[in-house]
Amino acid sequence: MLALIRYSVPQGQTDEFLVQAHGIADTLAAQPGYVRGRVSRSVDEPELWALVSEWEGAGFYRRALGAARMAMYPLMTLMINEPSAFEDVERP
């Protein structure tokens, strides 16, 4: 299962965003079911960032969000409001 949380980060807030985003990534990485993750930046729109993580299943991801809620709170105003959980689909 892939989790993708996108953020719109104004210039001048990048350094603070990176500190907090990596803190969130570290919190998520410590949760059961975590496979891997990273903080990424759009090559075409430098204000667009993503916190990407892979999980053993949606339940693990949803429980991990609860554990990371306090770490995520400061970045809520930068978060793009859209679905973040994507299931893997096998080739037909």
From TrEMBL:
Q: What are the residue boundaries of the ABM domain, all occurrences included?
A: 3-56
Q: Which InterPro entries does the UniProt record give?
A: ABM_dom, Dimeric_a/b-barrel
> Pfam families attached here?
ABM
Q: What is this protein called?
A: ABM domain-containing protein
Species for this entry: Planobispora longispora
